[in-house]
Design a protein that fits this description.
Blueprint (H helix, E strand, L loop, with lengths): L4 E7 L6 E7 L2 E5 L1 E4 L11 H7 L4 E4 H6 L3 H6 L3 H5 L5 E4 L2 H6 L4 E3 L4 E4 L6 E4 L1 H11 L3 E3 L11 H28 L14 E6 L5 H12 L5 E4 L8 H13 L7 E3 L5 H9 L4 E4 L1 H7 L2 E4 L2 E4 L19 H5 L2 H9 L3 H27 L3 H12 L3
Parallel strand pairs: 4-14, 5-6, 6-10, 10-11, 11-12, 12-13, 13-14
Antiparallel strand pairs: 1-2, 2-3, 7-8, 8-9, 15-16
Helix pairs in contact: 6-7, 7-8, 10-14, 11-14, 13-14, 14-15
Amino acid sequence: MPAVTFELHKTDTRTKARRGTVTTPHGKIETPIFMPVGTAATVKAMRPEEVKELGAQIILSNTYHLYLRPGHEIVREAGGVHKFMNWDLPVLTDSGGFQVFSLGKMRKISEEGVKFQSHIDGSRHMISPEKSMEIQHALGSDIMMAFDECAPWPAERKYVEQSLELTTRWLKRCKAEHDRYAESLGGESQILGEGCNQSLFGIMQGGTYPDLRKRSAEQVVEMDLPGYSIGGLSVGEPKELMYEVMDECVDWLPKDKPRYLMGVGSPDCLFEGVERGIDMFDCVLPTRIARHGMAMTSHGRVNIKNKQYERDFTPLDPECDCYTCRNYSKAYLRHLFKCDEILSAMLMTNHNLHFLVKTMERIRQAIDEDRFPEYKREFYDKYGRF
């Protein structure tokens, strides 16, 4: 058995929404799930204990950032990312591909991999599929992502086609390197490796071209990996186009493996993704907007910077039972933000992550009770326009 497995429990009778369980060496993950992002082995403005208390079941950490600081060998010496950050639940690490993609002119892509300049000090580095695997093995995450090229939007068909073929070749190299590592630990392969407690997920690319998406899916699924993700979406394309592409992508992925949509975390995208059969999501959105004074609430977003909250002594969300809403008012939160107090980011982040974690809990319950479409409509009616 691979280190990470998936069990499908139920599929909604009117949509593609589904309930399942991902089992990892550090615990089970009930899906559909939103994964808070801990880029540098920390969810910004939150202690690991607080993230766990919110009900988060897994976090995502970043290969690119941990490679640059403090260095993957230091994390290895610390006993892996779990011990390094005092987090005993599952961890997923992305491959660094998206971060390298984001560097723009500071990187150069070749068959070998990507040469890039550090955003920190301008130093030059090279990440190849093999290097990405080396870093992620050192980090010791439960789920590792294959190194891929994330094509921008819009992009010409020829470029997207070349990009997806490169991603497939890189995936083969990632799998070969991961198999080699598993064998060195006494396992037969990545699929049957008793000594290896990490699993590799593949990434589908293909931009917004349906036939290229299908081709990429066929190539990735042929690898028979424990899970698959849909990459290259939420990179600037209109949401309706993203939903259209996502709808087709899911049909080309196995029903008995988890499906992960990378980089998506607004409430509407979570609902639309779940409706189309996505199991796993991640995004920096809830933590990032919290640091800028924006809260997600059951009745839409609240911009705590607005003067209307100066004397508003009610909680951010009267329907929320998070630590922030139980103890603090909008007026106090506005005061903290205006004074540039660290506590502002801490309390707002606590609320936003709680909001998404609880929303996903309710989505799972709604799927179990065959009322997901009704819950989605109720949520949208209260939350308003996105």
